Every structure is written in C-alpha cells, then in structure tokens.
Hints:
By secondary structure, the protein is α+β, with helices and mostly antiparallel strands. The chain has helices at residues 4-8, 40-48, 68-71, 80-91, 96-99, 103-117, 125-142, 175-180, 184-199, 205-210, 222-253, 255-263, 268-278, 310-313, 348-365, and strands spanning 26-29, 34-37, 53-54, 122-124, 284-289, 293-295, 298-300, 305-309, 370-371, 378-379, 388-390, 392-394.
Amino acid sequence: MTNIADRWGLNDEFFWLRDKQPEELVSYDEKLGVWNVYGYPETVEILNDHETFSSDAVRLLPDAAAGAQYYEGDLSGMTGAEHASLRKQADRMFKPSALAKLEARLEKDAADLLDAVEGKDSFELIADFAEPLSGNLFCDMLGVPSSERELFKLVDKGLDSEVKVSTVDQGGEGYVEAQIKHIQPLRDYLLEHIADRRKNPGEDLLSVIVNMKRHDGTQLSDNESVNFTMVMLGAGYLTGTVLIGDTMLVLDHLPEEAARVRADRSLIPGMIEEALRWFTPTAATYRATSREVEFAGKTIPADQYVVAWLAAANRDPRQFSNPNVFDLKRSPNPQLAFGRGTHYCLGAHLARMQGRIAFNALMDRFPNLSADPDNPPKFFPSPEMLGMHSMPVLTN
C-alpha cells in the first residue's frame, strides 16, 4: 500500500509518515540555527523539564520584537508561577465535568449539520461539518454569537505559511510575522467583547479571562486578555477541527480499520488516540534552553532554540511496538499529540469529546464515507502542522 504521505503528496520532511526513522535522534540544523529532537524519551524529558527547556522560546527569533504585543499574555509562552496561576484559572472551563454540560449541544449540532448534507453525493467535511461543529461550540464557550464564527478562521492563517522557524535571519518574511500578520481583525473583534465583559461579566470563558489575576494579584490588560483568548481558540476551536479532519483521512486510508470501528463503536476512543499518534496534527513544539545541558549525548548551550518533534516521537520504536502499524487496540498508548507536563494542551479533553461525538454521528449517517479521489484534500502548507483547509468526501 502507498503510504499516506505519498498518497496525498505531503511534505517530504515528514519522514515518519513514510515509515522512516531519523538519522539522528538529536541534531543541530546550522542553516536554521535550531536543535531538532525526534526521540520519544528525549521529547518527554524536554516537555517535563520546564526549567531547563523553557517555553519562552519566541525571544530567540530574529523578528521577536516586532511581535511583542501579540505574545503578552500568551499562555503557551509563559513559565513558572505566572503560567501555573493563569492556567489553573482557565482550566476550570476545560475540565471534564464542565465540558460534560456541552455534550448534548455537540450531539444536536452534529445531527443538524449532517441533516443539511443528507441526500447529497458529496460534501466538504471541514467547511460543512468539522469547522462549524467546533466553531459553534467555542462560540458558546466564549459567549459570542455563532453567526460571527467566520472570524475564527483567521486563527488558521498562520498555518498557510511555509516559513520555517529559525534563529538565523533568513531575509524576507520572518516566522513571527508570518504567524501574526492576518489576525488583527480577530483581535479587534475580541477586544470589543472583552470591553463588554469588563462592564457586564457573565459565566462564559471570556468573562473568566478578563477577570483573571496574575500571580502578583494584578489583572490582565486588554492586550493580554486578547492574546490569552487567541491561545484558547487554538486549544479549543482549531484542535477539534483538525482532529476530525485528520482522523477521517486516516480512516479513509485504512478502510479495514474503519470497518472495524463502524462495527464496534467502543473502538472510537482508541481510534482517536491511535490517529493522534499515527498522524499527529501538531508535529512540533518549541522550547529554549535556559542553561547549557548535556542531552542525549550532545552538549546544547544556553539560549538555544529546540524543536521537539512530537509526531516523530510518536513513531519511536523504543516506546511503541510496531510504531508504523495503526493499532486500534494499542494499550497503553502514551502518545504526545497534546504534549506533556505543565503545558499539556488545555483543549485535549474537549477535542476528544468532539471527535467521539463527530464520528459516532458520521458513521450513523454515512457508513460508506470516503475521500473524493477526484478532489483531493487541501493541506496547510505549514512545516509543523498536519491539517487540512478542506476535505471533500463522498457519501456512497
């Protein structure tokens, strides 16, 4: 069978999707000025040692200053007590007990969205189903009208860039600029709602964010609140959308496994975990060394940019037996798609819940759903994200 990467013409650098292992588990890329880490135990060490491998990595990029206002209040780049305090305040909105209240809404939305494409020979999985399912839910969580969710798509725009992260000035557009240049309309929109919540607080996620306190007891500024909300959009809205699309792509590529899941829906949670391992959406995460460290036989100096390749680590044979085989019943399955340690993805439980509800609904309604060979998926060109703008599917 042609591997999934070659079938769809995915980035040549995603070697793990071609059932290959890295030449070195840890290596330095002189051209980009970054350290690449591909092994599972090495990646886990990086994610767990937040003092040595700091999440405040943007500071090492040449165009970091140009994007300073876009990173104030960015939870993903915070460290220490500040991070712990703010994360704890946001976490209550993403706990299983809180999200359970949204389950019925998700099920109804999934049914309504599939009603709208009932009787069609084909539809667009992302635009007609995954994106509105995730977008409507997150509108509810933020307390904004679902009719305005189109602006959320600006979160995806940074994934349209092929610019690689680099600590070396490459000339032209830098990594930070590529990530932030499209998002101002969404920031302006959120600022309006943040101003309203300061006057009229409610029980929604935006109200929680604008009332957050830093570790020292002071309140977040409007700019910090916007940036915090943008991170939540990535953790909630984008993660769920990409998970549904990617999992469908995997099932289409492995029809025998898809048939097993259709016949036994108890396999859906395991299917989602294995899809996250086998076709990891967020391929990489970033850290900066705070000191010189001996690591996996290499000496990494202080203030070095480290790229931990979660997707490659999820194919490490030292951790997973037969790592290139998609195994619905793999157990245990300590995949790293959502990270590990203090920066474990806040939206992980939400994404899993969305995936479970989405695929029960899709399999109930369209048991023969498949990719359209005449209209291939359109992937984000991002060098670190495996996800799709669109995925046309056939219903029969």
